[in-house]
Write a structure and sequence with these properties.
This protein is of the alpha/beta class. The chain contains six helices and twelve strands. The protein is globular.
Length: about 210
């Protein structure tokens, strides 16, 4: 079981439903327990995902070692990271968000419960306007609590169902951030190769950033 808050994994668009629908208006009835998903399963990326990755280090932008659980990341944070790092998110990019949770986990131990730092839902229009293809984070993506009483994970729900974004949950971005800072280069080739689990909504992965 790779979904959850611990294993680095890829979410495919069939992972979440909204009003009984998956991405691109496909019905939830395309998913069943016997055959899995007949639409937008992880095998849609069977040949891997290779694109330009951009790391946005929001913990560094806020001059803290890590964001505290429950702290959301907003569009102003993303643009300030772009400005400080001298990089700009472009169409087709994979955007990786560093909250510093990897450092917190290594130095202070993993926090319990589901409260976590992450993307605030207000970032979704920003990501859509930039035509981002994939998002990742060093947490399970959504800030928790999300601030929306009726939607537990709005970033997951909108990204997967409305935007068709692929998602990388629970990345350890510490080595990537250290290398990027040393080189003064915050973009790189990102390669993600999921296991070809037929009909499933994701896969454990080991993403590789090549500078």
């Amino acid at each position: 079981m790779f979904h959850g808050n611990t294993i680095t994994h890829l979410d495919s668009p069939c992972h979440i439903f909204w009003d009984g629908m998956m991405y691109n208006g496909r019905s939830h009835s395309l998913v069943d327990a016997a055959a899995g998903s007949g639409w937008a399963a992880v095998t849609a990326a069977a040949n891997g995902i290779v694109t330009r990755g951009v790391l946005l280090d929001v913990a560094a932008v806020r001059d803290v070692p890590w964001l505290e659980p429950g702290e959301g990341v907003f569009p102003d944070d993303l643009e300030e990271a772009e400005r400080r790092q001298g990089v700009q998110v472009q169409s087709g990019d994979a955007v990786l968000l560093r909250t510093g949770y990897g450092r917190a986990r290594h130095e202070a131990g993993a926090a319990g419960g589901i409260t976590q730092a992450g993307w605030h839902a207000s970032c979704l229009p920003w990501l859509h306007e930039r035509e981002v293809a994939l998002i990742g984070a060093d947490t399970p993506q959504d800030v928790q609590p999300s601030g929306y009483d009726d939607v537990l994970m709005p970033v997951h729900a909108v990204s997967l169902v409305a935007m068709g974004l692929w998602m990388l949950d629970n990345c350890d971005l510490e080595e990537c951030a250290t290398t990027a800072a040393e080189l003064g280069q915050w973009d790189f080739q990102l390669a993600v190769a999921p296991v070809r689990f037929a009909g499933t909504s994701g896969s454990p992965v080991n993403p590789i950033a090549t500078f």
